[in-house]
């Protein structure tokens, strides 16, 4: 599971947490991936963003007989999901707020695995009518249990300020609107990514290839190509 001796750029998995048809999550994640791809570390080629869409993973409700922390996976979809997460060095979670928490699909995807998450760093981006903060607060707790270190800076996207519904029928509950985040939203996402990289550099990473430096992670301080 966390045995990849991978070389190449530091891989940040951007996990799209909503799966429903017509979801706004696709627009939010697309914007987030664009912003992250403009980060100096990504532009310099020392980090890369991989969008991981839970709708494409199509995981059923957890159907493994053995809890994930034992790493005894019986289902092919679990092994596939394990490989996807294990190949990431850190994460950005993009989650909507559903009934004051995260979507069931996202919680389910976390529950499937254990070691693949361990000792990695994540940043959280929430969105919702009220900005998704209750969802990201819950997600922070959940990720703590699978040993993910969540950075303090997080991004909150309130739907009624960051989406333009001017061309939509006000009576249509499925109107997606057009995402129009302001510059400060981009700044906080970029700052969050910098924190993810900085914290990652401070954590030991025995599964990383030794050619990436003594701790297997890119250096943080003094490594402008990563955290500038
Ligand atoms: C089942 C469900 C529950 C929701 N609950 C909340 C909520 O508790 N708080 C909130 O601010 N928005 C809530 N919303 C609004 C969603 O955050 C908003 O519709 C968002 O676009 C959902 O993300 P998605 O379009 O990617 O699925 C809820 C939406 C759904 C579908």
UniProtKB/TrEMBL annotation:
Domain of life: Bacteria
Gene3D superfamilies: 3.40.50.360
Region (Disordered): 208-228
Domain spans labelled NADPH-dependent FMN reductase-like: 11-161
Pfam families noted in UniProt: FMN_red (PF03358)
Record-given protein name: NAD(P)H-dependent FMN reductase
């Amino acid at each position: 599971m966390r045995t990849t001796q991978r070389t190449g750029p530091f891989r940040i998995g951007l996990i799209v947490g909503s799966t429903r048809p017509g979801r706004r999550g696709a627009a939010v994640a697309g914007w987030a991936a664009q912003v992250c791809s403009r980060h100096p570390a990504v532009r310099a080629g020392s980090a890369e963003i991989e969008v991981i869409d839970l709708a494409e993973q199509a995981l059923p409700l957890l159907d493994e007989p053995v809890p994930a922390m034992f790493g005894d996976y019986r289902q092919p979809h679990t092994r596939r999901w394990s490989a996807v997460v294990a190949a990431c060095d850190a994460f950005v979670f993009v989650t909507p707020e559903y009934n004051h928490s995260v979507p069931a699909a996202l919680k389910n995807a976390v529950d499937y695995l254990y070691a693949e998450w361990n000792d990695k760093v994540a940043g959280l981006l929430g969105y919702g009518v009220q900005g998704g903060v209750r969802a990201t607060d819950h997600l922070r707790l959940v990720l703590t249990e699978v040993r993910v270190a969540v950075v303090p800076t997080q991004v909150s996207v309130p739907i009624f300020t960051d989406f333009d519904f001017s061309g939509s029928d006000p009576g249509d509950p499925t109107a997606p609107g057009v995402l129009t985040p302001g510059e400060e939203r981009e700044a906080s996402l970029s700052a969050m990514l910098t924190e993810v990289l900085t914290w990652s550099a401070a954590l030991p990473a025995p599964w990383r290839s030794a050619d990436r430096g003594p701790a297997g992670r890119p250096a943080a301080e003094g490594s402008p190509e990563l955290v500038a």
